[in-house]
Amino acid sequence: MGRKVTIIGAGSVGAATAYAMVIQGFASEIVMIDINMDKALGEALDIRQGVPFCNPVSIYAGSYADAKDSDIVILTSGMPRKPGMTRLDLAQANVNITKQIIPQITKYAPNATYVIVANPVDILTYQFYKTSGIPENQIMGAGTILDTARLRARISEYYNVSQQNVHAYVFGEHGDSEFVPWSLANISNIHVDEYPKCIESHGQIITPLVHEDVEEYTRKSGGKIIARKGATFYAIAISVCHLCKALFGAIDSTLTVSTMMHGEYGIEDVSLSTLSLVGPNGNMGKILVPLTDAEIEKLRSSANCLKTIIQGLQF
User: What angle do CA 208, 210, 215 make, to 5 degrees?
Assistant: First the structure.
């Protein structure tokens, strides 16, 4: 069975996603679309010439019409975030770009699952829900998947334990109001704060990590990368591929994708990240994990931050 993916936007994120997808070998056809056709042609050709050493895949630059019969459409188009710029500074500019894309892509790929990656991802996901006419289960934002990966990587580094053994999440906006529900964080089913007490230190003093420091690292590391190299794209590309593999999987996976809220935790009419079931039928709904009262308040505060921005936008 074919697995066709269309990537809109051949910039750093789109190209890195296509490259990671080819390396991982789970797509059979990849279409790259960009307003700059030469850029899309160059990226597709560069990747295609390495395919003989990967699983067979057809990768090429095309138009919106070439997205016909796509299983997944990944939206990365938009103005890049520049040093000193917040994700929300991009809001209206990228809303305007997405406004032009939506009718063109949905015309040819009405049955695809849409993965929104461009920033501000929660607002563009909300826009897609409100204006595209695509069923809700077929729309999701990359949300805090990357932030969750950054969080787990930091905890892993701190305790020198495999990332695969760390289970922790970032909820809320993909941005400054995001937060970590520490009540859920564990290493091999041991709460992260209890972990140092449960391992043999061999004479070493192992101190518990400081929640605030880890959250600050998670929240600000993207900006630090941008300041140092101009953009972030490798980790988000790997994160998006992880999401796409879940969409192509045989059973559902739990991921912190950005989806529409319908009263969960007292929040409505905004898109943000909590834990959701994602699988071959798209977004299958949220997992209502038990949060503390303080964590629920943080989630509501994050929702209100997004709503404040949304009120000033024209979709």
Answer: 135
CA–CA separation, 289 vs 304, rounded Å? 20
What six digits make up the tokens of 200? 């043999």
Determine the Cα–Cα distance for residues 304 and 229; give it in Å rounded to an integer.
32
What is the rounded distance in angstroms from the CA atom of residue 226 to the CA atom of residue 284? 34
Q: Which one of 174, 191, 211, 262 is the catalytic residue?
A: 174
At 3, list the tokens: 């697995």
Residue 174 annotated in active site: yes
**What helix, strand, coil percent values describe the chain, rounded to 5?**
45, 20, 35
For 301, the enclosing helix (H) or strand (E) is: helix 293-311
Q: What angle is formed at CA 75 by the lines to CA 146 and CA 15, rounded to 5 degrees?
A: 75
Residue 242 burial by Cβ neighbours in a 10 Å radius (0-12, 13-18, 19+): middle
Q: What is the largest CA-CA distance in the chain?
A: 64
The 10s digit of each residue's pLDDT in 71-124 is 999 999 988 766 776 656 778 889 999 999 999 999 999 999 999 999 999 999
Q: Give helix 91-108 / helix 121-131 axis angle, nearest 10°.
A: 40
